[in-house]
Write a structure and sequence with these properties.
This protein is of the alpha+beta class and 222 residues long. It has a domain of 151 residues. The protein is built from three helices and eleven strands, in the order αααβββββββββββ. It starts with a helix and ends with a strand. This is Lipoprotein.
Length: 222
């Protein structure tokens, strides 16, 4: 008497279920009860190729003139910051107390674009501490613009950014500052600044050409 093939086929799923239960009911790719977890390998850390040239090395020949700059010093002769924060401080007086911005002043305060003078003050939280910093910009008759950002350090005012460019536009992107300038070569330069705990530093610098480039035969190339 021969066995029925239907009976052996029906038994196959039952044997698989029993084997799965004997394995501790572990999910595919998971760990069975009592199985140890594989140790996590440490992540690689950066190592300098030339240790003598790093800023952290006391023997670095360029340590005194490295990329690390001392923290900015508070402005002298600037008004003190009171309970109202930087919004309650005279922005024009702050700009006049800054030697770099003072060179671009002298034409008064602007109420609309198209002239020379100090733009209306703008306030934005660029440091992430919940207090808005003071942003001022001064336009010149030649088309250049000087922009500065000031932060409050107790009662003192600290300049944390100074930049100059032609036909400048400034935007805030989250807590970062985006500055657009238009050089004379037909390009647009976009610089993004981010707070590093001490000052606003450059995190990206892009130049985009918007006008066609001239060719040797006098024609324009897109």
């Amino acid at each position: 008497m021969t066995r029925s093939p239907r009976r052996s086929t029906a038994a196959a799923p039952l044997l698989c279920a029993v084997a799965f239960a004997a394995a501790g009911c572990a999910a595919p790719g998971g760990l069975a009860p009592g199985e140890s977890v594989a140790p996590v390998s440490p992540q690689p850390q950066p190592e300098p190729l030339w240790p003598a040239w790093t800023d952290a090395s006391p023997r670095a020949a360029g340590a005194a003139t490295g990329t690390r700059q001392p923290p900015p010093e508070p402005l002298r002769d600037a008004p003190e910051v009171g309970p109202g924060g930087l919004r309650a401080v005279d922005a024009t007086a702050v700009a006049k107390a800054d030697k770099r911005m003072k060179l671009f002043l002298g034409k008064g305060v602007l109420n609309a674009p198209g002239g020379a003078g100090l733009r209306p003050a703008v306030y934005a939280d660029l440091t992430g501490n919940g207090q808005k910093e003071l942003v001022v910009a001064a336009d010149t008759e030649s088309g250049r613009t000087a922009l500065s950002v000031y932060a409050a350090e107790g009662k003192r005012i600290v300049p944390v950014l100074f930049t100059v460019g032609r036909r400048m536009q400034a935007e805030s992107i989250g807590q970062d500052l985006l500055v657009r300038t238009a050089p004379d070569d037909g390009s647009e330069q976009v610089v993004r600044y981010h707070w590093d705990g001490t000052r606003m530093t450059v995190v990206s610098d892009e130049r985009r050409y918007t006008d066609p480039l001239p060719r040797a035969d006098g024609q324009s190339t897109p």
